[in-house]
TrEMBL record:
Ranges for domain Transketolase-like pyrimidine-binding: 470-644
Reported cofactor(s): thiamine diphosphate
Enzyme class, first EC level, given as a word: oxidoreductase
Keywords annotated in UniProt: Oxidoreductase, Thiamine pyrophosphate
Xref: InterPro entries: DH_E1, THDP-binding, Transketo_C/PFOR_II, Transketolase-like_Pyr-bd, Transketolase_C
Example of a GO biological process term: response to nutrient
Species of provenance: Maribacter cobaltidurans
Lipid metabolism in keyword set: no
Origin: domain of life: Bacteria
This enzyme's EC code(s): 1.2.4.4
CDD domains the record matches: TPP_E1_PDC_ADC_BCADC
Parts of the chain that traverse the membrane: none
GO molecular function per UniProt: branched-chain 2-oxo acid dehydrogenase activity
Protein name per UniProt: 3-methyl-2-oxobutanoate dehydrogenase (2-methylpropanoyl-transferring)
């Protein structure tokens, strides 16, 4: 038997035995963690548990073939794998269960994710890349079933790109594209669209991925017959099987309790993927779920006695143990000793983790009890405060919330009293809250020097004698040309992006110049286009994923919000994916070509910058800025701007539109009009017409919706005009309401207003088609004019008499 690729055939029995027992120890360790983990939830120490029991053995096989530089993109069952590659210790496992907020103790997410969601660190403290080829890598898990699939495609594709682009400096990311991306997914999750889209795209792209399907025949309580045609995923996938004449996918099937077969299968799979860059699917059957799906509920409710008995008999750890004994690799006592030792280790780890989790809270509690006590002694509400104090003393295992509640309630009883003791308590609470909040809220965006909002503005420059006027799309194309020249790791891909250089020819001719790896066409599959981008960005490339029209971004919204937008936050800044999503929208006609749905996007995509440039100069400047930063962003180009003439800057590729900065495009004194994107042009026209009736509007381009106006410049305009109208083509209460909150509440704009702040938006329905459909669905020049005029009329009817 060949145990690992590094094992020679003439391995000594002792070495062989040591390897087997080392695997057995990990399998048993992992199982013991699962069993004790469940108890921690049942006794109330942890809130929820989802464990890897029943899936241990195939994960050991996967870990054996997993090499430095490889990446995993998996799901919550993979604790055994993480232990086998040395990235999860029992104590970490318990800290994960308790949601300890200290990243040193809970290395997977500092308590931000539930247990069973794993990660390895790709970044140094300053946000720069580690050398990923020197370590085993796991992209950060998300809870959404099959949500790991789109990213898996990109992780695998990165190897292909690195193998093809020989001139790239890939030293931190790849050794000639030899890395395999390893996916894992549950059998039931293969019902999801993301699974099928990824499988098809992997077959088309021929990327080195090995996808394991852990098949326990259930998805929580629902058996295979409701999930999978023919109840056999590899059978249904067989049409993807490669043959002599057609590239495709290699599909392997193996039983999850068969140690030797697993080792062979994984070695074989790794060779095929690594050397040939062919995707492989391993359907691992006959797995079990000894403790049921999670700590919520028990599987006795939905598995019959026969199934439960079968699961007991075919538990992979049990069969592994029997095989070890039957093959004479070890004796019963030897295994019993190992097991005893491991049980002790895990119990100790659990105890230590709990002590560590509590110690910070206990020490805070001690101080707080003392402060409340001292304040009570000098207060007229002594008895009420004593009760709070005593309740707190009685809380043996306090969490931060208990401390905050006690301190905040105590302060209410001290209101109006002036004592040093009250001040001390208030100061303690303020410090406690300000130190605690970042533990839960930091790292939504980069906290390092190259965060996008720190990239300095560089204005576009123009030839003084004769500035060339070009179509917007030409300006954009020539700017992309500069970017691809400057950044050899930049690549763009999407529907019609390659050969014709996008539907609006903003990339015209660039495939011929830079090759079809860097300027590439894809299938029509928005979710995996973004997945390609996330995966490649996680491996040091600078992808630009193109979504043809903004209205089709909803197909990939799940991947954007669940994976990309939460990445930095959920990893506590330990992984980054600086992906740019390029799309076009605004001011079009019809239900699916209007490109207006900004409110929806800004709400679910916190963690991604959302930029809505009004023209291609601004758009190009945003691309230039983003390439200098390392954060993800969505850029919505103005669809009706590609054929409009713009002055061509002479510093293409260099000028930078700042992120989080508004631009005043017209000075004025009477009213502030705030808008963005194509609607801004309409507002500019309306402002000209308003001037004809003596209303001098100031026009502000929001430009970047997330984040909006980080310097608070809009409020300065209100200080002058004392009136505000926000205009966009989103639904009422959409992005305009967000902008209003930012200006009125966050910037304190209400203090300067003499008229009610207002919004002018599209109608509440999706936009109708045609010129008239547009006119009657979205704000037009007349609407803007009349709304601004009405505000002036209300303020000063003698100068601005009623229009109609
Ligand atoms: C998109 C989404 N839908 C539903 C859920 C709730 N959910 C969590 S796990 C699960 C079952 C998954 O079963 P399977 O893929 O077979 O994996 P297993 O747990 O059996 O290993 C469900 C429905 C989820 N997390 N995400
Ligand atoms: Mg399952």
């Amino acid at each position: 038997m060949k145990v690992s690729s590094k094992t020679s055939n003439d391995i000594s029995f002792e070495d062989f035995k040591e390897q087997i027992l080392s695997d057995y120890k990990i399998a048993f360790l992992s199982r013991t963690c699962s069993l004790l983990g469940r108890k921690e939830v049942l006794t109330g120490k942890a809130k929820f548990g989802i464990f890897g029991d029943g899936k241990e053995l195939p994960q050991l096989a996967m870990a054996k073939s997993f090499q430095n530089g490889d990446f995993r993109s998996g799901y919550y069952r993979d604790q055994t794998f993480m232990m086998a590659i040395g990235h999860l210790k029992p104590k970490d496992f318990f800290h994960g269960l308790y949601a300890t907020t200290n990243i040193e103790k809970e290395p997977m997410s500092a308590g931000r994710q539930m247990g069973g969601h794993f990660v390895t660190y790709s970044l140094n403290e300053d946000g720069s890349w580690k050398n990923l080829t020197e370590q085993k890598n796991s992209s950060s898990d998300i809870s959404c079933t099959a949500g790991q699939m789109p990213r898996l495609l990109g992780l695998a594709q990165a190897s292909k790109v690195y193998r093809e682009l020989k001139d790239l400096d890939s030293s931190k990311f790849s050794d000639n594209g030899n890395e395999v991306a390893w996916g894992t997914i549950g059998n039931a999750s293969t019902s999801e669209g993301m699974f099928w889209e990824t499988i098809n795209a992997a077959g088309v792209l021929q990327v080195p991925m090995v996808l394991s399907i852990w098949d326990d025949e259930y998805g929580i309580s629902v058996p295979a017959k409701y999930h999978t045609t023919k109840e056999d995923i590899s059978k249904v996938l067989s049409g993807f099987q490669r043959d002599e004449n057609n590239p495709g996918i290699e599909i392997l099937k193996v039983k999850g309790w068969d140690y030797t077969a697993l080792m062979h299968t994984y070695e074989n799979a790794a060779d095929i993927a690594r050397q040939e860059h062919v995707p492989v699917v391993i359907h691992v059957t006959e797995l079990t779920q000894p403790q049921g799906h999670s700590t919520s509920g028990s599987h006795e409710r939905y598995k019959d006695d026969e199934r439960l008995a079968w699961e007991r008999d075919n538990d992979c750890n049990k069969r592994f143990r029997e095989w070890i004994l039957e093959s004479g690799i070890a004796r019963e006592e030897e295994l019993a000793n190992i097991e005893k030792q491991i049980k002790r280790t895990v119990r100790e780890a659990k105890k230590e983790a709990w002590t560590e989790y509590l110690e910070e809270h206990l020490s805070l509690k001690k101080t707080l009890v003392q402060l409340i006590n001292e304040a009570a002694n000098v207060s007229s509400n002594k008895n009420f405060l004593a009760k709070i104090k005593n309740d707190l003393i009685a809380t043996d295992e306090p969490v931060k919330k208990d401390l905050a509640v006690a301190a905040r309630k105590a302060l209410r009883y001290l209101v109006g009293e002036s004592s040093k003791e009250r001040e001390d308590l208030a100061n303690w609470l303020n410090k406690f809250l300000s130190e605690s909040q970042p533990k839960f809220s930091s790292h939504l965006y980069s906290e390092n020097d190259n965060r996008a909002t720190k990239i300095k503005a560089i204005p576009p420059k123009y030839d003084s004698e004769k500035t060339e006027k070009v179509d917007g799309r030409v300006l954009l194309r020539d700017n992309f040309d500069k970017l691809f020249e400057r950044y050899p790791n930049a690549l763009v891909f999407g529907e019609d992006t390659g050969a014709i250089g996008d539907v609006n020819q903003g990339l015209e001719g660039l495939q011929a110049k830079y090759g079809n790896t860097r300027i590439a066409d894809t299938g029509i599959r928005e979710t995996t286009i973004v997945g390609q981008g996330i995966g490649m960005a996680l491996r040091g490339l600078r992808p630009i994923a193109e979504i043809q029209y903004l209205d089709y971004i909803f197909y990939t919204l799940a991947t954007l919000t669940d994976d990309l937008a939460s990445l930095l936050y959920r990893t506590y800044g330990k992984q980054k994916a600086p992906l740019i999503i390029r799309t076009r929208g605004h001011r079009l006609e019809g239900i699916w070509h209007s490109g207006s749905e900004m409110g929806g996007l800004i709400h679910v995509l916190r963690g991604i910058y959302i930029l809505a440039p009004r023209n291609m100069t601004q758009a190009a400047g945003f691309y230039n800025t983003l390439m200098k930063s390392d954060e993800p962003a969505l850029i919505i180009e103005s669809l009706n701007g590609y054929r409009l003439k713009e002055d061509k800057p002479n510093n293409l590729g260099e000028f930078c539109t700042p992120i989080g900065v508004v631009e005043k495009v017209k000075e004025g004194t009477d009213i502030t009009l705030v808008s963005y994107g194509s609607t801004l042009r309409i507002v500019e026209q309306a402002a000209k017409e308003l001037l004809e009736v003596g209303i001098d509007a100031e026009v502000i381009d929001a430009q970047t919706l997330l984040p909006f106006d980080i310097h608070g410049d809009t409020v300065k305009s209100l200080q002058k005009t004392n009136r505000l109208l926000v205009i966009d083509e989103d639904v009422p209460g959409g992005c305009s309401a967000y902008l209003l909150t930012e200006i009125i509440e966050k910037q304190g704009g209400y203090k300067y207003l003499d008229s009610a702040p207002q919004t002018l938006t599209a109608q509440a329905h999706r936009p109708a088609y045609g010129t008239d459909g547009d006119y009657f669905s979205k704000p037009n020049v007349e609407d803007v004019f009349e709304k601004a005029y009405a505000i002036m009329n209300e303020a000063n009817p003698s100068d601005y008499p009623r229009l109609r």
